[in-house]
Design a protein that fits this description.
It is built from eight helices and 14 strands. The protein is of the alpha/beta class. The protein has three domains: 143 residues, ATPase, nucleotide binding domain (Nucleotidyltransferase, domain 5, 2-Layer Sandwich), CATH 3.30.420; 56 residues, no CATH class; 101 residues, ATPase, nucleotide binding domain (Nucleotidyltransferase, domain 5), CATH 3.30.420.40. The strands form three sheets. Strands 1-9-5-2-3-4 form a six-stranded mixed beta sheet. Strands 12-11-10-13-14 form a five-stranded mixed beta sheet, with helices on both faces.
Length: 327
């Protein structure tokens, strides 16, 4: 598991202790919305304790000071309604703010210490970064066949998000990378069969503006990429084809990096935000078996009205928020 920020002093004992298996509050901030979820796992299944969606007003530009104040108020309002338990948060940086690269690791992992890896990462990625390397928080995830997935965020972005949660009176347990959250949702909800442990799958999460792509072998992240094509574009059949072309390029890049891994199927983790017809079109153009994974269907919801969840919401995309609460 890789974190951009982790507070080891936070504890799940206390406010969270009175609900068995209660996880932290997962907060998924995207360009256009804030999705908040808290789940519990008591060993008999995962239950949704509370959830909330706050959509960004059109007049508020993402990433601005006004947006930051809106996010603070939206999160504070959602988490102060009595349904959420405790104040611990696992949050993600928006996909648009996370730089992702894929590199070969030097030699064998056992012989490559952290300082050597950082030198290699900086040398291979600093010219590609959209911000100054000196101001970047850079992590990597060791993958198969001597590959590594590199993730970087501008420190100013991290500090902006830390300020949001501090001002919303919440305690940050961790800031997590979105590919890890998606992988967690897949393994907990849709990768539970024995055959899934070794299966290599492509996960797709489509939001309003972008499609997030992950390739993993169960909980092991192998590849990640963000494509700037989202649900607001996919009413156009030409854009559906364009997304399929981009996904084909992802598959081609993955296959060039992993000679021994066979990509078996697509899993759409977008819930109802992406129509089954569109999923079918994409799968057909990629000529791959596919399934739709709706996280809302995979959890128990004792009282949807109290949990502030409407299953009929067309943009009910909970994969990242659920994964954050389960890490």
């Amino acid at each position: 598991m890789v974190w951009f920020f982790k507070n080891h002093e936070c504890s799940t004992v206390g406010l969270l202790g009175h609900i068995k298996g209660c996880g932290p509050i997962g907060i998924d901030i995207s360009d256009d919305s804030v999705r908040i979820a808290q789940l519990s796992d008591n060993g008999d299944g995962v239950t949704l304790l509370a959830g909330a969606v706050k959509n960004r007003p059109d007049e508020v530009k993402s990433g601005t000071g006004i947006w930051q104040r809106w996010a603070i108020e939206a999160i504070r309002e959602a988490t102060c309604n009595g349904m959420f338990h405790g104040s611990e948060v696992v949050a993600s940086i928006p996909a648009s703010e996370v730089f992702i690269d894929h590199i070969k690791r030097p030699g064998n992992e056992s012989s490559a210490d952290e300082s050597k890896m950082r030198e290699v990462i900086l040398a291979k990625t600093k010219q590609k970064l959209p911000f100054e390397a000196a101001d970047a928080m850079i992590k990597y995830i060791a993958a198969e066949e001597n590959n590594a997935v590199v993730l970087a965020v501008d420190n100013k972005v991290v500090n902006r998000h830390l300020a949001i949660y501090e001002n919303a009176n919440l305690e940050i347990k961790s800031i997590c990378v979105w590919p890890t959250a998606l992988t967690t949702s897949y393994t907990r909800f849709f990768g539970r069969r024995k055959a899934d442990l070794d299966a290599v799958v492509m996960l797709l999460e489509t939001d309003s503006r972008r499609t997030n792509v992950v390739v993993c072998r169960h909980e092991n992240l192998l590849f990640a990429r963000t494509i700037p094509i989202g649900t607001q574009h996919l009413a156009d059949e030409e854009m559906v084809t364009r997304l399929a072309v981009e996904l084909t390029a992802c598959r081609r890049q993955f296959c060039s990096m992993y000679k021994e891994a066979h990509l078996e199927r697509l899993i759409f983790l977008s819930g109802q935000s992406l129509s089954k017809e569109t999923c079918g079109q994409i799968a057909k153009q990629l000529e791959m078996p596919a399934q739709v994974g709706d996280c809302l269907v995979a959890v128990q919801i004792p009282d949807a009205s109290k949990a502030q969840i409407d299953r009929r919401q067309p943009d009910a995309n909970w994969a990242t928020a659920f994964g954050l609460s389960l890490v």
